[in-house]
Amino acid sequence: MPPVKRKPRTYDPALVRAGLIGQVEAVRNAVHGLTPDQLARPSGLPGWDVRHLVVHIAGQIEAVPRLLAEPPPRATAPETDLNTWAVSVAGAAHELDEATRRHAQAYDSAARAVDDAVEELEPVLEQAVRADVLLPHSFGAMRALDFTVTRLLELVVHSDDLTRATGVRVPLVRHALATTVRLLADALAAKAPGASVEVRIPPFAVVQCVAGPRHTRGTPPNVVETDPLTWIRLATGRTDWLKELDAAHLTASGERADLRDHLPVLE
């Protein structure tokens, strides 16, 4: 039986806007409290110290006003949706690394880079969550709302990176966290289509994925369940499946419930 086509998830512009404002502010507050020693620590990402990570975060914030300021794309309909973005973003890793290094050379203060990005973002917040505005993304025309949803993911993932690298807790705003969990869960379902495994990330998401016999009633025979933060780390390659299984941060029951071949989602 072919997999059932899932209806794309929708995101409330007002909640996306609130999540963006809240997570940006959480990052900004944390960054302003970092010491030179903390900024010089390894970020956990290849080749970057924490200063590079902070400058990269600034670039992710600044990307919203920058794309809004560019001429609109020739396309009249979206060419890139959230699932396409999620499974394609790894291909731009080299370009992002180069841009981050250039950005870092332009700033003597990582906190100032974030401040400047926030200053540019604030006047365009309403436009940033419009579903009827297309942005000229390098992957193809993308709705402004969808692109801003990807900024929530970037901010949440890198807030966690900052926390782990510096020991300074960067709070995760609930809606930003929920959006990130759902986006990554949906991308997994798109990357490994099917309905033989149910993935549960309470309280935010449940998706079915992986080709095989479809389950229709009762308790599914193949179930994966984990918490939101563990899921984000698994889906973005920050942690290892067996490590989290051994630590009891993850449960997987059923012969098809091993997702190692499908992770990370953002490779």
UniProtKB/TrEMBL annotation:
It comes from the Bacteria. Residues 174-265 form the Bacterial SCP orthologue domain. GO terms for molecular function: metal ion binding. Gene3D superfamilies: 3.30.1050.40. InterPro entries: DinB/YfiT-like, Maleyloyr_isom, MDMPI_metal-binding, SCP_3. It holds the Pfam family MDMPI_N. Residues 24-162 form the Mycothiol-dependent maleylpyruvate isomerase metal-binding domain. This is TIGR03083 family protein. It comes from Streptomyces radiopugnans.
